[in-house]
Design goal:
Shape of chain A: elongated
Oligomer: heterodimer
Radius of gyration of chain B: 38 Å
Strand order of the largest sheet of chain A: 1-3-2
Structural class of chain A: alpha+beta
Strand content of chain A: 5-15%
Largest sheet of chain B: 8 strands, mixed
Helix content of chain A: 55-70%
Structural class of chain B: alpha+beta
Helix content of chain B: 40-55%
Number of strands of chain B: 25
Largest sheet of chain A: 3 strands, antiparallel
Radius of gyration of chain A: 17 Å
Chain lengths: 115, 931
């Protein structure tokens, strides 16, 4: 059995934004599935936790939602990235890369690098 | 930005009570349906597929809750819930709510009404444009005249000449205005009116006075610089308050008023909010240009054209950006220049003091603040006293809250058992406290309003129903916010401890179902509160005792004159155009006329009667000794003097110790004589016999002006320095005139305007005001009578403030006593209730009811005894503090302290007796059944 990791709060929002950015409008289940796929099931999102985050993003104006028809032809709520959301994604991506880069360098740190 | 957007959305949801529950439910169902479908595709049987889908989704209820929290503003929502809940609970126990609200209202109201005075008298700025730009001359307010070319410590009063010098040379001032330092009364009569002249306060001001303050007329126009020139038509500005007395008649503007028999045209009405430059209880009703002083030669104003007569205060508005310190430095230079230019007219002493003459500029946004200095101590003491009362109130309410918390123990422990968060419970309890406190604060405004009115009435009974007072009893914005803040602080003070106690419950208790716990939770804090209350009440009672004793001591001191049967009639002969040599005849005729009134035993006239608020002073030059040098020519060596008619000492009731009184034989042509008091004799003659000695006044240029013919007992004339021994004093004969040696001129013609007639009634007889008026007007109907009152009133008016403070602190002391007794009663009766079973057992085992009652009372007394022990050192400290602040107050007054202790112990007994009685009447069988 694979060990599953919990997702930190802010990261989940980022994942949602990126997913919507790449794949276009999706409903909640769709987003959950994609995140699962991309993380190769390493991330076990308690799928329900997605919804409060979606609400928060919507309140902030990063995404908007509207009704549409789902694969099994039921009424479903689709989420779409707004221009604000795209901008937010870019900033956060930059921040993330920066942080990851710094942390990465520290992990590669060896005694001789500092001598 | 994003946070703001989110907040607004959430806020809208909160207000519209929109819930997204349905939307979430829909989404969850859709989500699970899709997942189930996928699982089925993967080969799971439908039931299992749905179960797996649900598992993967997670805890639905938890997510729903999180979602809900995101939708609205949970903090605000719970606050609203708490408020609604608290309101419901308070409504359910109206007697508790009303008791607490009223108790709080008393405490907050007392504090607020004192603060209203405190704010108006000590903190408020004048209601003028940009008070921050105003600067005044002088560190201390100095009243009201000064002569010569040197001033003690600092130049704070100026002459017209010096004012013009400053005004024309100081660049940093946008406007520099001068105005009269004293507050004289003017005899005023509307032209064409039928009424006789009435006296109103007024003052001479420079033409730019109103421009400097930056205020504009309510009607008509205010004074300008062109009005303040020699030869300009005589114009005046009237106060809004006086205008109202004339029915706000628009024709007042432009009409003529006779002010001290000189016609002035009223050009405008000052705005309602303007009370003049000085905070005082009788603000001026007329503003007259400085130059019109020559038209109305007032005995108590300075002479406009005399460079060394200082009678004006200065306030200036500095230019934006100007530095007050550099203006001050510049004015010091200007002062030196001006003094040097008058060097030829200076006395030798003044010339010696020239180098040390200096001046100070101080922020003047509050105007001249002599009233502040006068009331500051009192108001601070009152503020402290009311803060003590508030503390006691808080302790009392905290006690009630504790009891309430105890009664709710079961409910609270049930909540805790069900998983309520402690912080939420505390918040709930605090919400209740704050609601109670705010209700108390709101009710207190009514009490504060009434209280302030009462205090103002006690302090200034003469102030025309308070209309003329620059102090408003109605709450202003700062007062409202003060009451609000005090309420909040009080809520925290009395609410926090009981709220915290509620969280310390054991959830097991609820499950055990024990409604009456044996746990001692809350007993100690409640006892401490009672101890605290007892200590504070002791302090307040003792302090009020000290203050009352001090007032009594002031009023019953040896004044050196008699008050009984004596009436003071105040006249102003300076307003009628008598020649200097006519006064003696006038006074003789007044005395003769008054003596014909049946019941009048004697009548004499003096310039200023004792404690009337005015006195002349001078230094003295003893014959055969050197003239006083610069070191002796100062305030400490000032001797005061008065001018009197024959028969004065017997009329006022001051005993002649040696020699004779001033009599009919002292005429304009006979040897000039003086009668001195004991202090004078002691200071200047020590053991020598002063009778027959000569002394003079340096400003008259002689050491042989007066021959001493008598010594009288010391009597209090000055209305200040009550804590100091009576100062040296001499009395001169009205019929004799002072002559300056060099010029031969009369040096003090104004000192022959005698103001106060002393009328002595025969024992048992009363003299009516009408008879007095009739007798005086039969001598000269033009002679204005300013007032008629008893000498006793004049004396007791001196101590009105002190009496008021003593009364108020006694009232606060009683209030605190009642509150502390209620607190003790509450604790005792609660304890009796708690220990019903225990008492029942005692009774069964053979204790008598009296023993049970004694047990209860003993416990209550023990608490108060601890309170007394804690309070006693505080009493000493407060006594010491009060003693340092107020004269006539002895810091350690065993009688007052003992009385306070006895009063407190007695009311403790009463408060404990009722529950003790109840305890002794407990029926043992019932008590045991209750167990």
């Amino acid at each position: 059995m694979k060990r599953k990791t919990d997702v930190p709060q802010g990261t989940l929002a980022l994942m949602i934004l990126k997913t919507l950015d790449v794949l276009g409008p999706l409903h909640g289940y769709g987003i959950a599935r994609r995140i699962e796929q991309i993380s190769r099931d390493v991330l076990a999102v308690n799928q329900g936790t997605l919804y409060p985050v979606l609400l928060k993003l919507e309140q902030e104006g990063s995404i908007v939602s509207e009704y549409g028809a789902s694969e099994n032809n039921r009424r479903a709520r689709f989420y779409r990235l707004t221009r604000d959301g795209r901008k937010q994604l870019q900033t956060e991506l930059r921040d993330w890369e920066q942080t990851a880069g710094i942390i990465g360098r520290f992990f590669e740190l060896k005694a001789k690098d500092l001598s | 930005m994003r946070d703001l957007r989110r907040f607004l959305k959430r806020f809208r949801n909160l207000v519209t009570r929109r819930r997204n529950d349905e939307r979430l439910q829909e989404e969850i169902e859709e989500h699970i349906a899709l997942q189930t479908a996928e699982n089925v595709k993967a080969g799971l049987p439908p039931a299992e597929a749905r179960r797996q889908a649900m598992l993967k989704f997670g805890a639905v209820e938890a997510i729903k809750e999180e979602y809900r929290d995101q939708t609205g503003l949970p903090l605000v929502e719970s606050l609203l819930y708490d408020t609604r809940y608290a309101l419901r609970r308070l409504r359910k126990s109206p007697s508790f709510t009303i008791t607490v609200v009223l108790t709080l209202a008393l405490g907050i109201g007392a504090t607020t009404s004192i603060f209203t005075l405190f704010y108006d008298v000590l903190l408020k700025s004048l209601t003028v444009a940009n008070p921050g730009e105003l600067y005044r001359l002088g560190k201390q307010a100095r009243c009201c005249y000064w002569g010569g070319y040197s001033q003690e410590n600092e130049y704070s009063l100026v002459s017209y000449d010096l004012y013009k010098h400053f005004r024309d040379h100081t660049q940093g001032f946008a406007e520099l205005a001068a105005f009269q330092a004293s507050d004289p009364l003017f005899g005023v009569q509307r032209s064409g009116g039928t009424e006789s002249a009435q006296s109103y306060p007024g003052e001479f001001v420079s033409g730019n006075y109103f421009a400097m303050f930056g205020i504009s007329a309510y009607a008509g126009r205010l004074l300008t610089s062109t009005d303040d020139q020699l030869g300009s038509p005589a114009v005046a500005v009237m106060s809004y308050r006086l205008w109202q007395q004339y029915g706000s008649d628009p024709s007042i503007v432009g009409s003529v008023f006779h002010i001290d028999n000189t016609p002035f045209t009223i050009v405008g009405i000052a705005p309602p909010s303007f009370f003049g430059d000085t905070l005082r209880s009788d603000p001026p009703d007329f503003f007259l240009p400085l130059n019109s002083e020559t038209l109305v030669p007032q005995a108590d104003a300075g002479d406009l054209n005399q460079a060394d007569q200082y009678w004006l205060d200065l306030i200036g508005r500095i230019k934006p950006g100007a530095e007050p310190t550099s203006i001050e430095a510049q004015m010091r230079v200007e002062l030196k220049q001006w003094l040097l230019s008058h060097q030829s007219e200076m006395s030798a002493n003044d010339r010696a003091k020239l180098p040390e003459q200096t001046l100070f500029l101080r922020p003047g946004g509050s105007g001249i603040t002599s009233m502040r200095a006068e009331y500051e101590h009192w108001l601070q003491i009152l503020m402290m006293v009311s803060a003590f009362v508030l503390l006691i109130v808080c302790a009392n309410v905290a006690n009630l809250m504790f009891v309430r918390g105890m009664q709710r123990r079961r409910e609270t422990s049930l909540s805790v058992a069900l998983g309520a968060h402690p912080s939420r419970l505390v918040r709930q309890a605090l919400t209740e406290s704050i609601l109670l406190s705010l209700a108390g604060g709101m009710t207190s405004l009514v009490i504060a309003f009434a209280g302030t009115h009462l205090i103002l009435f006690l302090a200034f009974p003469s102030a025309r129903g308070g209309a003329g007072l620059p102090i408003q009893a109605s709450p202003s914005m700062p007062v409202l916010s003060f009451a609000f803040c005090v309420s909040l602080v009080a809520a925290v003070a009395f609410g926090v401890a009981p709220a915290w106690m509620t969280t310390r419950v054991d959830p097991m208790e609820a499950l055990r179902g024990a409604s009456r716990s044996t746990a001692r939770t809350g007993a100690l804090p409640r006892k401490m509160l009672v101890v605290f209350q007892a200590a504070l009440s002791l302090v307040l009672l003792a302090a009020s005792g000290l203050l009352t004793a001090a007032v009594h001591r002031l009023e019953s001191q040896r004044f050196g004159f008699l008050q009984e049967q004596r009436t003071i009639v105040r006249i102003d002969p300076g307003l009628v155009d008598y020649q200097p040599n006519q006064f003696t005849i006038l006074y003789d005729r007044i005395r003769a006329s008054l003596s014909t009134i049946p019941g009048v035993a004697a009548a004499a006239i003096c310039q200023y009667s004792p404690l009337s608020g005015n006195n002349w002073s001078s230094s003295v030059w003893l014959d055969g000794r050197p003239a006083p040098g610069p070191d002796e020519d100062n305030v400490e060596n000032m001797v005061y003097w008065d001018r009197v008619t024959p028969g004065y000492f017997s009329a006022i009731g001051t005993q002649i110790i040696e020699g004779r009184s001033i009599s009919e034989e002292d005429t304009a042509t006979s040897q000039q004589v003086a009668v001195i008091n004991e202090a004078f004799a002691k200071k200047y003659f020590n053991k020598e016999n002063p009778i027959g000695q000569y002394f003079g006044r340096p400003e008259l240029g002689s050491s042989r002006n007066y021959k001493i013919v008598g010594v009288v007992q010391d009597a209090r004339y000055l209305d200040f320095d009550f804590d100091k021994p009576i100062v040296p004093f001499f009395f001169l004969a009205e019929a004799q005139h002072d002559v300056v040696a060099k010029t031969g001129a009369d040096s003090n013609p104004g000192s022959h305007h005698l103001h106060d007639i002393i009328l002595v009634a025969r024992p048992g007889a009363t003299v009516s005001a009408a008879e007095i008026r009739q007798a005086i007007s039969s001598v000269d109907p033009r002679l204005p009578i300013e007032s008629i009152g008893t000498l006793g009133e004049q004396v007791s008016n001196q101590f009105r403030q002190q009496r008021m403070i003593a009364k108020l602190s006694s009232f606060f002391g009683m209030l605190s006593l009642v509150l502390a007794s209620i607190g003790l009663y509450g604790v005792t009766s609660y304890n009796v209730g708690q220990r019903t079973a225990e008492i029942g057992v005692c009774l069964v085992l053979g204790a008598t009811p009296a023993q049970v009652a004694a047990l209860v009372v003993r416990r209550a007394l023990a608490l108060v005894a601890v309170g007394l022990a804690v309070g006693f050192p505080l009493v000493l400290a407060v006594g010491k503090f009060l003693g340092s602040q107020l004269y006539g107050l002895s810091p350690y007054d065993p009688a007052a302290t003992l009385l306070a202790i006895l009063t407190l112990s007695f009311s403790t007994l009463v408060a404990a007796f009722i529950p003790a009685l109840r305890a002794s009447r407990i029926s043992p069988s019932e008590a045991l059944r209750a167990e």
